[in-house]
Amino acid sequence: MHHKKELAPNNINDPNITLNHDNLEYLCLDCHNAEHDFNREKKSATKKGYRFNDKGELVPTT
Fold first, then answer.
1. What pLDDT was estimated at residue 41?
2. If we measure between CA atoms, which residue out of 53, 34, 33, 27 comes closest to residue 45?
3. For a 10 Å CB count at each end of the chain, is N or C smaller?
4. Per-residue model confidence as pLDDT tens digits over 10-34
């Protein structure tokens, strides 16, 4: 899923942004990555020192 209005520190806790179906769209991984690369410098999807595990949970890297 891709958020049409990008998540940011000032809206991450706003369910009208994070969970609103009108703000979400299905994209394949390649299209999702292209969308983000097109709009800004290439960045990691996670904060430095964290990663997503096999369950999709954000965990510290070890």
1. 55
2. 33
3. C
4. 988 999 999 999 999 888 877 877 7
C-alpha to C-alpha distances, 19 to 7, 32, 36, 42, nearest whole angstrom = 11, 18, 19, 25
Q: What is the mean pLDDT of the chain?
A: 79
pLDDT class of 58 with cuts at 50, 70, 90: confident
What's the rounded Cα separation, in Å, for the pair 56 and 62? 16
- Residue spans of the domains in the chain: they are 2-60
Task: Give the CA-trace dihedral at 28, 31, 34, 35, to 10 degrees.
Answer: -100
Whole-number Å distance between alpha carbons of 13 and 54:
24
